[in-house]
């Protein structure tokens, strides 16, 4: 099988041995790859989809851009007996759904050419699913109100942040808010297991509430802009999008020095994909350097971020719009088991430990 010449590759030399004329031609014969749950304003997907079509001449048939992970899996289940025109070839799932989908036989294994540069902690060893991009929990700050930027979790307990710090939601029901509690716990040095980290995080928020710094209101872009919640703890990519779209007030995004916690999404090919070769080529593109940089342009850190940085593949024009690369050097990907234990502990003990609801 002859490798594709470098001039037709998207991601540089890493894919030279992985892509082939045969795969590209087989994908072109299929003519289409069907996606689900890829809104154009999410992680740069609009530009990524267009770039794939421009490169290979293959249509991306987009369905249900706002679909949830469960709805994506339901679409795969339905396609097993009725492969209609909207049957998905590929899915983009929350990590917590990946293993159960694999166990159910909904995902087809495939290892992309850059497989070895995907961290082992966020991929199935046989290639049924693999992390694609991630966000980390960060501080979004209205600098018209907050004059001194907090650099780490412990800073939020300071006198200057009275009535300033909010979560993005109720941690008993919001995955983003629960992971924020987990991150705060990790920053204390608790790292035995999910329950221990969650208990430490609950203790941190109890101290934050006792200091009068915690705002018992779900922080949003609107409440941050108004100054009601001038520091919101949330995904960095959401905060960065706010920063880049709001003129006033000035917004800064801080990745804390410790407790840098990520939750990746994962890519997978449907076990019933109507266009299996186009699905494989789509994956090869997403995990090429250009595909990964497409997510980074959309303020989502691609799973191969460390590899891109180590090989000087991140253009200055992109890097200058993001927090420093070394801020992500110690990023932690909690296991599904640890997150499950933490979420249970948080939901059961938030009231008694913290004593503040989130409206």
UniProtKB/TrEMBL annotation:
GO BP: thiamine transport
Keyword hit for Signal: yes
Listed Pfam families: SBP_bac_6
Presence of keyword Signal: yes
GO cellular component: a single term: outer membrane-bounded periplasmic space
Residue ranges that the Swiss-Prot or TrEMBL entry lists as coiled coil: none
GO molecular function (one): thiamine pyrophosphate binding
Keyword annotations: Signal
Superkingdom in the source lineage: Bacteria
Family matches, as PANTHER family: ABC TRANSPORTER SUBSTRATE-BINDING PROTEIN, THIAMINE-BINDING PERIPLASMIC PROTEIN-RELATED
Protein name (record): Putative spermidine/putrescine transport system substrate-binding protein
Lineage: Bacteria, Pseudomonadati, Pseudomonadota, Alphaproteobacteria, Hyphomicrobiales
């Amino acid at each position: 099988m002859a490798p594709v010449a470098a001039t037709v590759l998207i991601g540089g030399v890493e894919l030279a041995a992985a892509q082939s004329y045969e795969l590209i031609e087989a994908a072109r014969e299929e003519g289409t790859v069907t996606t689900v749950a890829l809104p154009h304003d999410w992680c740069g997907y609009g530009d990524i989809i267009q770039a794939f079509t421009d490169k290979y001449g293959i249509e991306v048939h987009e369905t249900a851009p706002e679909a949830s992970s469960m709805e994506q899996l339901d679409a795969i289940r339905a396609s097993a007996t009725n492969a209609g025109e909207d049957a998905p070839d590929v899915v983009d799932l929350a990590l917590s759904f990946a293993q159960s989908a694999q166990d159910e036989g909904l995902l087809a294994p495939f290892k992309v050419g850059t497989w070895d540069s995907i961290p082992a902690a966020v991929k199935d060893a046989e290639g049924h699913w693999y992390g694609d991009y991630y966000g980390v929990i960060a501080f979004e700050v209205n600098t018209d109100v907050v004059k001194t930027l907090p650099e780490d979790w412990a800073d939020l307990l300071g006198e200057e942040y009275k009535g300033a710090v909010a979560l993005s939601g109720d941690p008993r029901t919001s995955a983003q808010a629960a992971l924020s509690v987990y991150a705060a716990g990790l920053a204390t040095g608790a790292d035995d297991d999910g329950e221990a980290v969650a208990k430490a995080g609950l203790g941190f928020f109890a101290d934050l509430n006792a200091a009068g710094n915690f705002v018992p209101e779900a922080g949003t872009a609107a409440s941050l802009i108004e100054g009601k919640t001038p520091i919101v703890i949330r995904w960095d990519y959401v905060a960065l999008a706010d920063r880049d779209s709001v003129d006033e007030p000035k917004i800064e995004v801080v990745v804390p020095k410790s407790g840098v916690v990520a939750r990746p999404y994962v890519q997978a090919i449907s076990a019933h994909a109507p266009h299996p070769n186009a699905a494989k080529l789509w994956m090869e593109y997403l995990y090429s350097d250009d595909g990964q940089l497409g997510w980074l342009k959309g303020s989502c850190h691609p799973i191969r971020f460390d590899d891109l940085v180590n090989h000087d593949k991140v253009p200055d024009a992109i890097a200058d719009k993001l927090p420093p690369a070394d801020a992500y050097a110690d990023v932690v990907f909690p296991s599904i088991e640890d997150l499950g234990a933490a979420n249970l502990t948080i939901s059961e003990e938030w009231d008694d430990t913290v004593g503040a609801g989130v409206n």
